[in-house]
Specification:
With 178 residues, the chain is α/β, with parallel strands linked by helices. Helices cover 43% and strands 17% of the residues. It starts with 8 loop residues before the first helix and ends in a 7-residue tail after the last helix.
């Protein structure tokens, strides 16, 4: 799952994880500081040197620099029978699609830029961060739409969660006779 900051990717994935025991979340690493009120387990927060050592060791499935911070997904090792869910930047999605045959990309977009701005402000991003993320969003959406198998507008959370759940179901193998 990818999309600009503030579109609700983590919220959608959180709801999906509550409902679907076959999903396995991958926890990304980042060099950005933890936001006030952000759960400890939202990311593995590391300094730049630690992140760069992991890159050099080949420890990431994908990684990218985004607005001055590094983000990356460790090479996943899910339990058998589980589908991996990644919440990643568009740059990372491109890398995953190149490296993982059969990966499915869902792009989540906001209903409008003012809605995106309000969500970013509501989660505690600084005014400067909000401005940078909103400015970057147009570019991310353009690239994301080129890469995505599916685009979901998060204008209503429950509807968006149901839509993504349906997308997941459509890409899973169906038992014989079903």
């Amino acid at each position: 799952m990818s999309g600009p900051g503030g579109v609700g990717k983590d919220t959608i994935v959180g709801r999906l994880l509550e409902r679907d025991p076959r999903l396995w979340p991958s926890r990304s690493w980042t060099t950005r500081p933890q936001r006030v009120g952000e759960p400890e387990g939202a990311y593995t927060f590391v300094d730049r040197a630690t992140f760069e050592r992991e890159v050099a060791a080949g420890g990431f499935l994908e990684w990218a620099e985004y607005l001055g911070n590094l983000y990356g997904t460790p090479v996943p090792d899910p339990p058998p029978g589980r589908d991996i869910v990644l919440v990643i930047e568009v740059q990372g999605a491109r890398q995953v699609l190149e490296r993982v045959p059969g990966a499915v990309m869902v792009l989540v977009v906001p209903p409008s830029r003012p809605d995106q701005r309000a969500r970013l402000e509501g989660r505690g991003d600084s005014p400067g961060q909000v401005a940078r993320r909103v400015a970057k969003a147009e570019e991310e959406e353009t690239e994301g739409r080129r890469l995505a198998h599916h685009v979901v507008v998060n204008d209503d959370l429950e509807r968006a969660v149901a839509e993504v759940a349906g997308i997941l179901a459509s890409h899973r193998p169906h038992p014989e006779g079903a």
